[in-house]
Amino acid sequence: MRRLQNFFTAQTLKIQSALVSRSAARGKARRMMQQLFMELNLLEERVLMADITISSPSDLAQYFDSANNTYTIDAGKDTVTINSGLTWNTSSSTGPASKIVITGDTINIGANVSIITDGAGTNQSGNIEISGKNITIDSNVLISANGTNDSLDGSISIEAENERKTTFGLSAWMQVEDIIQLFSDQSATVELGAGSQINGGTVNVQAASGNPLKWENWTTLAGSIVNIIGTMSGHPNPLSLPVTFQSWSPKSEITFGNDSQINSSAKVTVNATAESNAIGKAS
């Protein structure tokens, strides 16, 4: 009788231990989700940067890196605005012209602005790089990286990119991302206003949007590994959902206004691509 009692006591302890383990797993999953949302809130605060407005040449000094002879204006997820009528000339008679890099979600270059990195004498012209999701260059704007001969011309790159990672809907959080995607801007646009000119060596104007499949989608791979390990160990991924939802409507557009021009001593590339992929999981 004592042996039977000991047997039932041992089995009861095992059942209690299993229940505690399940409860602990659920609690851990809840804590993980809470921590995830807290980290996302902090991340959102970190990526919020102030818009940058350039109204006069004196505003540019803070963005100059003398060690690399480069002006870098980076608004992160916000907007860069260069007000109408500004002349930004980095040409130098004593050395190569300074490079110019402008980055932000939205780039607005006002009418009659001149951005010049021409090489003086035998000096090399500076390259010009403008990148964002939506780039608007107003009328009668001059963007120039001309040297005194073709070999001294600088390159000019204007690239609008709004590409997102493909989540494959492998977890609840990834599926939330997919739903949010439905209401987000999926466009990549470049607009060159009437009478504007781009003069330089190699000129590249591109717009790319959508969710191209890339190996860099490491979160997808990580989600797959977690799901497989969890299933094999008898503990399915707590973030799994039985259905997935994805919506992609990318738009890539490049617009040239009346009398706008690209003058190049080398290669000119104008390219707009939009790619949409949807892969999901049901369980």
Major sheet attributes = 7 strands, mixed
What is the typical, i.e. mean, pLDDT? 78
Computed Rg: 27 Å
- Terminal CA distance reads 47 Å
Question: SSE order in H/E notation?
Answer: HEEEEEEEEEEEEHEEEHEEE
The domain tally reads: 2
Strand content: 25-35%
Features:
283 residues, alpha/beta, 7-stranded mixed sheet, 6-stranded parallel sheet, 18 strands, 30% strand, globular
Task: Describe the protein.
This protein is an alpha/beta fold. It folds into two domains: 1-48; 51-275, no CATH class. Helix content is 25%, strand content 30%. It has three helices and 18 strands. It is globular and about 55 Å long.
What would a concise description of this structure say?
The protein is about 25% helix and about 30% strand.
List the SSEs and their pairings.
Blueprint: H1 2-47, E1 52-54, E2 64-65, E3 70-74, E4 79-82, E5 87-89, E6 99-103, E7 106-109, E8 114-116, E9 128-132, E10 134-137, E11 142-144, E12 156-163, H2 172-182, E13 187-192, E14 197-200, E15 203-210, H3 218-232, E16 251-256, E17 261-264, E18 268-275
Parallel strand pairs: 1-4, 3-6, 4-7, 5-8, 6-9, 7-10, 8-11, 9-12, 10-13, 11-14, 12-15, 13-16, 14-17, 15-18
Antiparallel strand pairs: 2-3
